[in-house]
Amino acid sequence: MAEALAVGGTLLAAVLAYLFGARQDRRSRLHAERITAASAFCQALMDYRGAQIHRWHAERDDAQDLPEARAALRDTRSAAWACYFSVVLVVDHAPASRACRAALDAARALKWSPDPETLDAAGDEVRRLTEAFVGEVAVKLGIEPASLDAAVAHTAHVGV
């Protein structure tokens, strides 16, 4: 009888350990997917921002590489939108989704900049909003790196 209880207890412990381990593995994978989605969005958005700025200058200067600049813009815009949708699905945090969309909308608005100074300021705004997005993802993930403190604090005050 004692042996049966010992075997049963060992089996129960093994099953519970397996279930807890599987749950922890799922959490770890989701955590990694959230970081990957946020990182991919940031990279795609900075590429899109750069392509917007390059296309803006090419149009203003009637540059020979204008068709290539427009093609690069289309490619980077598609990548940024795809990464945005990935963030919305994977991160599952409304403030992060709103901050993500605000950064994407700011990058889209670069094309309407009337002059180089406004373009530079708008480009800086895209970067700032991207940092705010990263701050919101960090909040969701429970990450508190010192470099994101300002972005998180700003996001909390602005209500992005």
Describe this structure in words.
With 160 residues, the chain is mostly helical. The chain has one domain. The protein has 5 helices and no strands. The chain has helices at residues 2-60, 66-91, 94-108, 116-141, 149-158. Helix 4 packs across helix 5. The radius of gyration is 23 Å and the shape is elongated. The relative contact order is 0.11.
Summarize the structure.
By secondary structure, this protein is mostly helical.
Structure class: mainly alpha
Mean pLDDT figure: 85
What's the overall geometry? elongated
Helix content: over 70%
Give the SSE string.
HHHHH
Termini Cα gap: 64 Å
How many structural domains in the coordinates? 1
**Main sheet attributes: strand count, strand direction, barrel closure:** none
**Quaternary arrangement of the chains shown?**
single chain
Strand fraction:
under 5%
Residue runs with pLDDT of under 50 for 5 or more positions: none
Integer-rounded radius of gyration: 23 Å
**Number of helical runs?**
5
Total E-strand runs: 0
Give the tags:
160 residues
Helix and strand layout, with pairings?
Blueprint: H1 2-60, H2 66-91, H3 94-108, H4 116-141, H5 149-158
Helix pairs in contact: 1-2, 1-3, 1-4, 2-3, 3-4, 4-5
